[in-house]
Write a structure and sequence with these properties.
This protein is an alpha/beta fold. It has one domain: Roll (Flavocytochrome B2, Chain A, domain 1).
């Protein structure tokens, strides 16, 4: 199974998102936001930017198709259209131009659907 590359960036139903935040979020806090504890947020980071995907817990929470991304910077996996746990890491600088393009598309896709709640502390971007 692979993550499909988004074809249409605009959500089907227009969303009112909060202004992006740049609050520092540690890797430990990010790890805790994996959906395993009810009532806690579910976060996915892309290139160091943290998105709150809690409204889509059915996909990103335990048992969801994309739970592998929850609580992590999933940049490499998204760029490679992979749902392998070993690919759900923050390393993307060594990817080819095509994969970086896919990663940028995913960033755009997420930014039109989910609130940006911060930046991973120590991220290269």
């Amino acid at each position: 199974m692979s993550a499909p590359v988004p074809k249409n960036f605009e959500p089907k139903v227009p969303l009112q998102l909060n202004p992006p935040k740049d609050d520092p979020i540690s890797v430990d806090v990010l790890k805790q936001a994996d959906g395993s504890v009810e009532g806690r947020p579910v976060y996915v980071a892309i290139m160091g930017t943290v998105f709150d995907v809690s409204d889509n817990r059915s996909s990103y929470g335990p048992g969801g198709s994309y739970h592998v991304f929850a609580g992590k910077d999933a940049s490499r996996a998204l760029a490679k259209s992979s749902v392998k746990p070993e690919d759900a890491i923050a390393k993307w600088d060594d990817l080819g131009d095509k994969e970086k393009g896919v990663l940028n598309d995913w960033y755009t896709f997420f930014s039109k659907r989910y609130n940006i709640v911060g930046k991973v502390v120590g991220s290269s971007l």
